[in-house]
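Worked example 3 (structure in, sequence out).
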């Protein structure tokens, strides 16, 4: 097995995921990804026909994000029709899973050059638009395991771990402050490119639109819990509420403490990102200087009601594969789906919090579901170079009870 090299990584700014209000809400998701493809090509100068495959994560694959979005994006980019493409869905890990599949392809020798990433236009195709819910509405499956929405799982984790509202809000405040500093210092500039209207060429968004740099602890504390009413929704076959179904699986919790709010949970945004991956053979023949190599990749399943606890075991699995420990990782990108997930992962792995999400995360910047994993990898790579560090681990929780982790090493 050969190496898989990261040649470059780019992303759009994240736009607010509100129809008619977010700056990217007027751009078709195929066009967002097409601009990512062309930006990578223009930066590196490769011939598009040399690309063996384009792999793109996307969660809500319906409507404008259906019909194999990745293939349409290749065509929208004006690339040769010989360039193949595939869309995939591992929920929030989709963008990073695309990177994994691409890295496997080039490391195995089956491919030489792959573009891998993801896209999600949450303003145009809202979360849940595919109608599948938690389990594809399979009532027989619910007799075996009755899954609950992620917000309920996040609050259940917080209850079981004993985290306080103040601890959750502290994660959110740090995310906002770190993101504000990163934006002010231009730490995202290497990967960011301005999105343009595909018809007029006018720039519609140059910088991340979602962060709230003026966020305060007092403002966060004033927000109401987001999932209290949802927890009281009756959905069970015997009239159980979602909270009751969660407690049936974890009776030791006794009651679900609803502590996550709009301020300490990830934001709804639009965006796209991708990474160029190359084989040893391609790097050698083209005389390229890779920015990093993929050192280890891992996925793992976890209990599907609690659902969001797999970043820790996925990270441990990747570390074992790399022959490393958590102390060997210079930078951690733990997706901020919910503040409780970040705290639980840090506690389980014994990570120094100062190495985690140093430039903010999805609480401040937003979480464009299918794109986030690829965005986090690019952010980690840029920060390794900026701070002259060597290794980073990127990990995300996944709906349905899964986790993903990737270790990259700067070259």
């Amino acid at each position: 097995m050969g190496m898989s090299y990261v040649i470059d990584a780019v992303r759009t700014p994240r736009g607010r995921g509100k129809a008619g209000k977010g700056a990217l809400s007027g751009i078709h998701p195929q066009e967002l990804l097409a601009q990512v493809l062309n930006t990578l090509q223009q930066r590196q100068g490769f011939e598009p026909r040399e690309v063996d495959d384009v792999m793109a994560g996307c969660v809500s694959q319906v409507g404008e994000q259906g019909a194999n979005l990745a293939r349409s994006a290749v065509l929208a980019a004006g690339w040769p029709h010989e360039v193949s493409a595939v869309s995939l869905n591992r929920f929030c890990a989709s963008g990073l899973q695309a990177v994994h599949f691409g890295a496997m392809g080039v490391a195995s020798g089956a491919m030489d050059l792959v573009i891998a990433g993801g896209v999600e236009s949450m303003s145009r195709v809202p979360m849940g638009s595919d109608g599948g819910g938690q389990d594809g509405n399979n009532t027989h499956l619910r007799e075996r395991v009755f899954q609950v929405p992620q917000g309920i799982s996040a609050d259940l984790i917080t209850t079981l771990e004993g985290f306080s509202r103040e601890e959750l809000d502290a994660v959110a405040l740090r995310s906002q402050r770190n993101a504000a500093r990163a934006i002010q210092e231009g730490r995202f500039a290497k990967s960011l490119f301005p999105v343009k209207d595909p018809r007029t060429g006018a720039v519609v968004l140059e910088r991340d639109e979602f962060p709230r740099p003026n966020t305060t602890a007092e403002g966060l504390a004033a927000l109401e819990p987001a999932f209290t009413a949802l927890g009281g929704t009756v959905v069970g076959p015997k009239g159980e509420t979602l909270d009751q179904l969660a407690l049936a699986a974890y009776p030791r919790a006794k009651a679900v403490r609803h502590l996550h709010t709009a301020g300490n949970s990830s934001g709804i945004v639009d965006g796209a990102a991708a990474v160029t991956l190359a084989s040893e053979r391609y790097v050698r023949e083209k005389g390229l200087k890779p920015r990093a190599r993929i050192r280890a990749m891992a996925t793992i399943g976890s209990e599907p009601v609690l659902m969001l606890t797999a970043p820790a075991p996925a990270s441990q699995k990747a570390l074992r594969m790399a022959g490393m420990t958590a102390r060997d990782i210079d930078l951690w990108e733990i997706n901020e789906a919910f503040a409780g997930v970040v705290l639980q992962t840090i506690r389980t792995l014994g990570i120094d919090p100062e190495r985690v999400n140093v430039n903010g995360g999805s609480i401040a910047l937003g979480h464009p579901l299918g794109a986030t994993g690829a965005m986090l990898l690019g952010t980690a790579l840029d920060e390794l170079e900026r701070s002259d560090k060597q290794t980073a681990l990127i990990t995300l929780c996944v709906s349905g009870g899964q986790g993903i982790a990737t270790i990259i090493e700067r070259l």
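Notes: The longest strand covers residues 269-279. The mean pLDDT is 98.
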